[in-house]
């Protein structure tokens, strides 16, 4: 076999090896990216669960203080179910009360960005996620049609927020939520 043929065979073998290594490298990179995204989504779901549980801890106080009916319990229990329609005006009233108790609203009734950012971080969000959550709420405040009834207005913002969290696949699973509620009892 002459050296020219050997060079051709060597180059072909090298190209095949390089192509195989490149393909394997791409697969490894794709797996790493998928795992990073998947773990981000799972950690985001866990953070949303923690925030939801802690947000709702004062619900009994708000119900008592405002004379809210027990019918709102179903809205809070089913809130993150994608096919569940939150529609009770009193649920909006309860969200206002809970947000006020947690210092998440400013004196004008709008979202207090600093306190909301800290609330998210306290429950595991990093700065990027906390900012994204605030941006979503701000976007929902802008896109929800104005209503003189603050409870209806808040209900609209909550529906928008829920829809956006579902688009990100950050909504906590009902299994996690039920387990957490049972653990709290």
UniProtKB/TrEMBL annotation:
GO molecular function, one term: odorant binding
Disulfide feature: 62-97, 93-151, 140-160
Keywords: Disulfide bond, Transport
Alphabetical list of SUPFAM superfamilies matching this protein: Insect pheromone/odorant-binding proteins (SSF47565)
Keyword Disulfide bond: yes
SMART domains: PhBP
Entry's family note: Belongs to the PBP/GOBP family.
Protein name per UniProt: Pheromone-binding protein 1
Organism for this UniProt entry: Streltzoviella insularis
């Amino acid at each position: 076999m002459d050296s020219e043929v050997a060079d051709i065979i060597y180059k072909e073998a090298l190209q095949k090896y390089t192509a195989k290594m490149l393909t394997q490298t791409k697969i490894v990179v794709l797996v790493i990216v998928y795992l990073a995204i998947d773990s981000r989504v799972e950690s985001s779901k866990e953070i949303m669960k923690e925030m939801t549980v802690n947000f709702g801890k004062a619900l009994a106080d708000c119900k008592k203080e405002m004379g809210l009916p027990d019918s709102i319990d179903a809205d809070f229990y089913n809130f993150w179910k994608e096919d569940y329609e939150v529609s009770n005006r009193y649920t909006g009233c309860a969200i206002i009360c809970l947000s006020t108790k947690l210092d998440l609203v400013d004196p004008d009734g709008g979202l207090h960005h600093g306190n909301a950012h800290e609330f998210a971080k306290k429950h595991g969000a990093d700065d990027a996620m906390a900012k994204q959550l605030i941006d979503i709420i701000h976007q929902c405040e802008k896109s929800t049609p104005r209503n003189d009834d603050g409870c209806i207005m808040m209900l609209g913002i909550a529906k928008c927020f829920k829809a956006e969290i579902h688009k990100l696949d950050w909504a906590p699973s009902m299994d996690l939520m039920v387990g957490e509620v049972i653990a709290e009892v």
